[in-house]
Structure formats: C-alpha cells, structure tokens
C-alpha cells in the first residue's frame, strides 16, 4: 500500500512538475544567428567593374564608361537562385576597385556615370526588388579596401566607408547579411597616386564604431568577417568546412585578414568564447568574376555535391557564387550546373526513412525531451539527457531492413554546441558494425557512407560539453550519382578510368567493342576510342568517351622542358611552359598524320595561350616542311581543345610553333597530340 502511494506521488509530481530544460552551454547564438542558420544555402553574386575589365581585382583606375551590361536582369538572377533552393543573394555592391553598383552620393565612381541606363540605373535597387518578388533575402558585400579612393589609408576614407554603409542599409529594404572581405591594403590607383598603401588591419576601420551602424539600421542582419561579428569565414575558398567544426570561436583573438586565421581559427574552437558559426564561400567557376575563358570550367555535379556535403553537412552555411556575365545574366552553363545540383539535393533527401520507426534513447531527460522528438520534424523540440549524462545512445529500429547511405543529425543549438565525439553503428542480421567515428555535430551534420541494408541504426554519443540536446535524426537513401567517368591515357599508354563515386561499377569498351567491367589501369598502346560509363545494378549513367592517338611511349621532345611529362600525361589540369616558343616532337618512327591538337593551360591563373601558330613536319629532323599556319581566333575567350587539320602527310617529326601568344608571354601548353587518319 505504501509502495502504491509512493508511486502515485511520484507520478503526480511528474505530471505537475514539468522537466526543466537543460541549462545552456555557453556561448549560445543570438536570435539573428538562429534565424540565419536556418538559411543553410544562399547565393553570392560577383558582378561589378571586374566583369567588364575581365579581372579579379581591378586596380581602381577603371572608368565608369566601361560598365555597360547589355541585358542586365536581376530578376533572372533571383529566379535562378530561387529555383536552386537558395534562400538569399549577397551582391558585391563595391569590390576592391571601388566602383559602386548604386548611385552613391559620396563618389563619382559609380553606375551614375556609366552608359548603363544612361546613368539612371541602380543595381542594388533592381536586385533588392527582385529578391522581394522571389521571396529571397538580400545581402550586401561592401569591400573595406578601395583601390580607387584617394583617401584610402586615412581617417577620411573610414568616414566615406561608413557613409556608404549607411546608404546601403537605408535605401534597399531589409538586409540579412553584411559581408566584409578580409583582403585589404596594397597597391592601387588611389585617386592617381598609384602607390602601395598598407593599413593596420586591426585598427584602421575602427570596427567597434562601424558595426553599431549595422545594428542601428538593420538590427536583424548578421555581420560576416574573418572575426565575425556574427558569422565567420570558413578559412578557404573551396566551400569546405571541416569534419570537426565548432560554431564557437575565440573571437577576440581574431581580426580580419590576419595571416594565421585559416590554419588556427577557421574550424572554430571547442572552448571558443563567442558564437560565430562558419560560412563556406566558393565560386561555381574558378574565378569569382565572370571570364569568358572559364565558360567550359563550371564545376561539375560531383564537385558541387561534394561542396554541399562538406559545407551544409559539416555545420556551415553554403554561400555559392555565381559570376554574372558581361551581359548581366547568369550564364547558361552556370544555370544548368545549378539546376542539376538542386535536382540532386532534392533527390538525395527525397524521403526521410526514420519517421514511423521505433526510436529510443538512454538516458532520457524525461517528459518533453523524449527520443521521439528527434523524428517530429520540428527543430524547436529536442531530445535531451539528464544534466550529468554526457554519454548516451539513440537507437532507431526499422520495421524491416532498410537500405540507406545518409544520416542527418542536428543539435538544438539555442542551448549551445555540445557534442564532442560520437559513433554510428548499424545492425545487420542481429550483429552490430561500426559505420563511422565522428566528432562535432552542430546545427547540421550529414554523414555519407556506403549503402547498407540494416535493421537498426545506433548513434552513440561518447563525449559532450554538456548534456546532449538533439533536434533531429533523419536517414536517407540517396540514389547513386551516375556521372560519366573520367578516362585518361598517360604517357606510358596506360588507361585509367575513374568514377566520381567509388561505390559504382565502371564499364568500358574499346573501339565500339563489347563493354567489360573496369578493374584496374590497362595498357592501350594504339589509337582508338574508349567509351565508358558507371552503373549500379540496373542503373546506367551517361557514356564518356575519349579519342586517343597513337602510342606516345616512344615520343621525345627536342627542347629541354622542365615539365615535359605533363604535356603527355592526359591530365588537362597540368601544364608546361615552352620557353623556346615551340614544341618539337620526335614520334619515334615515321607515321602518317593529318593534324595536331593543342590544349591550352586550364589552371585558374592563365597565361601564354598560343594565338598564332605554324605546324611543320620533317622526316629526318633536319629539313622541315610547313603544313599549316593560322590563328586560334577565339582562344582568349574560349581556351578549349584546339585542333589544326592538314592534308595527310608522312613524317617522323612534328613541330608546333607559337608565333604569338595572347599576352605576349612565354607560350604554355596543357596537352599535345597528333591526329591520324581513320584506318
Ligand atoms: C576574397 C576577395 O579578394 C575575392 O575577390 C572575392 O571577393 C572573395 C569572395 O573574397 O577575399
């Protein structure tokens, strides 16, 4: 009887005394940071004077007359971003060259003196309105460094900078993020001084008195910078956060542009003093600004997906840049890449397979914090452990064995970032195997692992800064990314074929023959066409094919070249210089050729594209015959594979001579080959 009474009392107290929430583990996010973290994916637009000067960092001496987009359409930018699932757009209102995309009252170096819309245009206005129309947030990038301004480096410039900030934050509606670049100080035009100006990066901008302007005019806007205030740089421009990424940062030890930032601070610190989460910025092309010569270098779908998983999936937001072109539009290639990425993200997360299954956790804090909160699709509700439990196990048991390859976990970050170490286990036929050993979770952690059919999944939290509090556990089965594989033939005639996803099978055929499974590199010392595709069960990807010339194993170059092997390694990304202005190849034996191919260098910072050429052949290496002469007319804009064809000729030596390069620099080359008649 007494026992029963005790039980009633206990139940009664449980019913009347709600379980209190876990105490916050400091630091914790502000309201504006909490709202920002839910955006996850938004767009950067680099469009400004550099778009027209074909530069990345204009010197500051450009003329407003150069800014003349022919079809500028901010609604197209907004539509493209919206359709890609982005939540906002941040525009380079002013980059380091100082040109302003809005008619600032404080400078003549702006759109108001450009031919665009006869000086009546305002890109900030157009974009802010387009964002509103498409339900996107609107943000501004304002470069602290200004290579145009005569007073850069003096206190007067800081007043100018602040005045501009006021204009941007007053005239264009709500702003969700203000982006300050860490690059500042160096050579520049500076009103005609043409000199180098260094500033004290810590003190010059007097940030403690600049940031309040933002708080005053746009209290909900987050401030981005190396040191925050609110959002920090991820420390690289690849769009990758880190397997261990803390939102906590020792903010007072950091300042914008500090040299050791990337190595020491960018992944955050477990015991960081302030909540300053990471934002991963990356461009969809090699450059931030549009360059026609990068039209064929838009990132591939596997690359973009890797970026997505390594940013959004590693406790960072993704800021993906679109270099709007000189028409004023997002280029067709970028649109296509973005659409493919958006479709794949949708496909990978089409169905959360967790709800409807049984979830349990030990220990559990009590009523209101049960494990079922992990599956209720409500970020505000969460599972938590009692205060003194820093370890815990969550188990999701499937009704039937389920194939999956993604796990999503989210901490309830309003209470601070807590989890320090965890493991993921899967159960097959009654026995458990470890799937992953990890560290941090943060706002969102997405794990990719090889597909497996399991009857249960277990998350073991091994260590935490405070009692774990998780909002979400979700599992998915992402379909394979059936991207065409890469086929390479190297200098030794070895062919290798690689798939973007190592889990996939690769099949290939030689010269239209039967397809066979690819296991390892093989020798192929002859000319022909290799075709390959990736597959999984009955799913088959698109084919890739590579046409290759004769064996090159015996080829030799006459000139002494530092990186000679790179010209024949089959890799488009490697390159060599031709200091003698020509490439003379001994083919090892006489053969009939009917042309040559030249791939210009493909690295980010290009130089030495051959514009005017001559091709000569010889049977003995002494007497030469010219077989072709001409120009690669569009190479500066489009440095794709160039071919030169001529009447079939038998020779043992072939020479490719550069008569002029686009920039008068030493010619460069990524790949060289000869074309032979079809047998
Ligand atoms: C860098 C800048 O210098 C680049 O030009 C670009 O704007 C990038 C987002 O940040 O630091």
Residues in β-strands, percent: 25-35%
Q: Fraction of residues in helices? A: 10-25%
Mean model confidence by pLDDT: 95
What is the radius of gyration computed over CA atoms, rounded to a whole number of angstroms? 30 Å
State the end-to-end CA separation.
100 Å
Uncertain residue ranges: none
Q: Which class of secondary structure composition applies to the elements? A: alpha+beta
Ligand types: beta-L-fucopyranose
Number of strands: 35
The oligomeric state is single chain
Biggest β-sheet: strands ordered side by side in the sheet: 1-2-3-4-7-8-11-12
The coarse silhouette is flat
Profile the largest sheet: 8 strands, parallel, barrel
Helical segment tally? Answer: 10
Structure at a glance:
This protein is of the alpha+beta class and 679 residues long. Helices cover 16% and strands 33% of the residues.
Which helices and strands, and how do they pair?
Elements: H1 2-16, H2 31-37, E1 41-45, H3 49-53, H4 74-83, E2 88-94, H5 123-134, E3 137-142, H6 155-171, E4 177-179, E5 186-188, E6 195-197, H7 207-217, E7 222-225, E8 231-233, E9 248-249, H8 261-264, E10 274-275, E11 278-283, H9 301-311, E12 316-322, H10 332-348, E13 358-362, E14 383-384, E15 392-411, E16 419-428, E17 431-438, E18 445-464, E19 469-476, E20 486-489, E21 494-498, E22 505-510, E23 516-517, E24 522-523, E25 528-536, E26 539-540, E27 544-548, E28 556-557, E29 576-577, E30 582-599, E31 610-618, E32 624-631, E33 642-661, E34 668-669, E35 671-675
Parallel strand pairs: 1-2, 1-12, 2-3, 3-4, 4-7, 7-8, 8-11, 11-12
Antiparallel strand pairs: 5-6, 9-10, 13-15, 14-19, 15-18, 15-19, 16-17, 16-18, 20-21, 21-24, 22-23, 22-25, 25-26, 25-27, 28-30, 29-34, 30-33, 30-35, 31-32, 31-33
């Amino acid at each position: 009887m007494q026992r029963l009474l005790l039980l009633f009392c206990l139940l009664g107290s449980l019913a009347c005394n709600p379980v209190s929430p876990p105490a916050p583990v400091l630091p914790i996010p502000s309201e504006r940071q909490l709202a920002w973290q839910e955006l996850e994916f938004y767009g950067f637009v680099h469009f400004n004077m550099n778009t027209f000067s074909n530069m990345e960092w204009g010197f500051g001496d450009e003329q407003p007359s150069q800014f003349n987009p022919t079809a500028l359409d901010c609604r197209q930018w907004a539509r493209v971003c919206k359709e890609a699932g982005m939540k906002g757009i941040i525009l380079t209102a002013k980059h380091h060259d100082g040109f302003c995309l809005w008619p600032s009252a404080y400078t003549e170096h702006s759109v108001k003196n450009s031919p665009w819309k006869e000086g009546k245009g305002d890109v900030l206005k157009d974009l802010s309105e387009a964002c509103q129309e498409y339900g996107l947030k609107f943000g501004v990038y304002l470069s602290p460094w200004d290579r145009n301004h005569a007073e850069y480096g003096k206190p007067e410039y800081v007043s100018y900078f602040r005045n501009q900030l006021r204009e941007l934050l007053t005239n264009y509606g709500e702003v969700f993020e203000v982006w300050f670049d860490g690059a500042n100080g160096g050579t520049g035009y500076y009103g005609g001084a043409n000199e180098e100006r260094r500033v004290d990066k810590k003190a010059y901008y007097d940030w403690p008195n600049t940031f309040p302007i933002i708080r005053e005019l746009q209290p909900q806007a987050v401030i981005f910078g190396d040191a925050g205030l609110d959002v920090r740089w991820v420390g690289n421009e690849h769009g990758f956060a880190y397997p261990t990424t803390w939102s906590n940062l020792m903010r007072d030890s950091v300042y914008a542009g500090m040299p050791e930032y990337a190595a020491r601070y960018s992944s955050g610190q477990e015991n960081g003093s302030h909540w300053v989460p990471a934002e991963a910025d990356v461009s969809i092309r090699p450059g931030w600004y549009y360059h026609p010569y990068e039209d064929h270098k838009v990132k591939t779908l596997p690359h973009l997906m890797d970026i997505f998983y390594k940013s959004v999936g590693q406790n960072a937001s993704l800021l993906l840049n679109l270099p709007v072109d000189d028409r004023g539009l997002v280029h067709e290639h970028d649109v296509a890449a973005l659409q493919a990425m958006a479709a794949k993200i949708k496909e990978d997360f089409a169905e959360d397979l967790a709800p409807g299954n049984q979830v349990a956790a030990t220990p559990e804090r009590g009523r209101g914090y049960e494990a079922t909160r992990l599956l209720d699709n409500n970020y505000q509700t969460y599972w938590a452990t009692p205060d003194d439990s820093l370890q815990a196990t969550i188990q999701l048991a499937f009704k039937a064995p389920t194939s999956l390859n993604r796990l999503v976990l989210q901490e309830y970050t309003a209470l601070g970032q807590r989890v320090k170490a965890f493991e993921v286990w899967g159960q097959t036929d009654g026995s458990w195997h470890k799937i992953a050993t990890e560290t941090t979770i943060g706002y969102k952690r997405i794990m990719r692992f090889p597909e497996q059919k399991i009857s249960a999944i277990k998350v073991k939290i091994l260590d935490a800064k405070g009692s774990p509090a998780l909002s979400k556990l979700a599992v998915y089965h992402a379909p394979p990314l059936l991207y065409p594989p890469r086929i390479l033939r190297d200098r030794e005639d070895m062919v290798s074929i690689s798939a973007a996803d190592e889990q996939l099978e690769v099949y290939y055929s030689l010269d239209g023959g039967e397809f066979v499974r690819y296991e390892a590199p093989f020798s192929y010392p002859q000319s022909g066409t290799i075709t390959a595709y990736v597959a999984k069960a009955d799913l088959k990807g698109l084919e890739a094919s590579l046409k290759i010339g004769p064996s090159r194993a015996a080829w030799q170059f006459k000139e002494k070249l530092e990186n000679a092997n790179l010209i024949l390694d089959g890799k488009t990304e490697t390159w060599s210089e031709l200091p003698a202005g020509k490439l003379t190849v001994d083919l090892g034996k006489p053969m009939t050729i009917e042309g040559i191919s030249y791939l210009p260098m493909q690295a980010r910072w290009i130089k030495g594209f051959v514009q005017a050429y001559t091709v000569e052949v010889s049977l003995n290496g002494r007497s030469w015959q010219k077989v072709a002469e001409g120009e690669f007319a569009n190479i500066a804009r489009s440095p794709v594979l160039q071919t030169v064809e001529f009447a079939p000729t038998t020779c043992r030596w072939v020479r490719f001579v550069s008569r002029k390069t686009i920039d008068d620099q030493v010619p460069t080359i990524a790949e060289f080959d000869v074309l032979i008649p079809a047998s």
